[in-house]
Amino acid sequence: MVYSAPPRTSHKRLPGNVPAETATHFGLTVQSGTKYGLHIDRGTYARINKHSSIHFPRELAPKLWDASAKYYEDVDHRIHTDQWCTAHQARALENYDLNMAYFAALDRSEFNQTIDAAVAAKKGMVEVTNLNEWEGKTGLYVMVLDDYCQAYVGVTESFGGVKARVRKHWSSSKQFDRLLFGTVTQSILAMDSFRALDTTRIFAAKVRNPHELENKVIESLPGKFLLNRIMGGRGDLLGFVSALGVNILKTHDLEPGPTNTHLTD
After folding, report:
1. Which among 69, 87, 224, 265 could disulfide-bond with 261, CB atoms 3.0 to 4.6 Å apart, if both were Cys?
2. Terminal CA-to-CA distance of the chain, rounded, Å?
3. Is residue 64 in some structural domain?
4. Is residue 6 assigned to a domain?
5. Residue 158: which domain range?
6. Which of 52, 40, 36, 37 is nearest to 88 (CA)?
7. Residue 41 falls within a domain, yes or no?
8. Is there a contact between 45 and 199 (Cβ–Cβ < 8 Å)?
C-alpha cells in the first residue's frame, strides 16, 4: 500500500486577535486553538500549568505524599512550585527532542510494511477516509502518523463512536504534569500531544469486544512504532494487573543514560 494523505483544504486564517487555522481532515473541519496549531510543535509543547492533575488523598500513600510536599506550594498538593514547573518543563522538552530524533531514525519502509501487515491480519479492519461514516460506530481504531513512523491503537464504546474518539484526541492536550510517563530517556510522547494534521491515516474495525482485540493489535506491532504508553485492555483490569506486579508501562529506548524520574527525582 502506498501512503497517500487524505484530501484537505488549504489552511485558512480566521479573523480575531489570535491567528487560527482551519482545515478539512478526514471529512471533519479541524481548527487550531489559541494555544496549539494543527501540527505538534516544540514551541507550544510544554506550556507550564501549575495546577496538578495528579491529586490523591494523603491516606492513600502517606510516604509518597510527604516526600513530594516540597514540589507543591499548598498543603493540599494542588499547585506546583515555580521551581518544579521549570525543571519539569526542561525535562519534558529534553524528552521531546529525544523522541523526535528517535522518530527520524526509524525506517519508513519497514514502518509502512508493518502497518499494512497488521491491518491485513485483522478481519474487518478497513481504512477510514471520512470519519462522519464512523459516527456512533464503536470498536477498535488505529491512528497512523506517517511523518513520525508511529501509530496509536485505541478502542471506543462511547455513544459518539470512532468519530468522536478520534476528534477528542485531536482537540485534547496532555496535562503538563503528565507529559512524562516514565523517565526522560524512555517516556513516549502522548498521542494527545500530537495535533489533528499529524494523523495521516486511520483504520477501524467494528468488533464486539474491542478491549480484547486492542492488546492483540498492540502486541502485534513492534514497540518502536507505537505511541501507546500502556498495554491494551480495560482500565479496571489493567489496574488489577498492575497491582499484581505486572509491568504495563511501554517505553521507547531513546538514549542510554541515567534514570530521570517524573516526581521523585
Report:
1. 265
2. 46
3. yes
4. no
5. 12-243
6. 52
7. yes
8. no
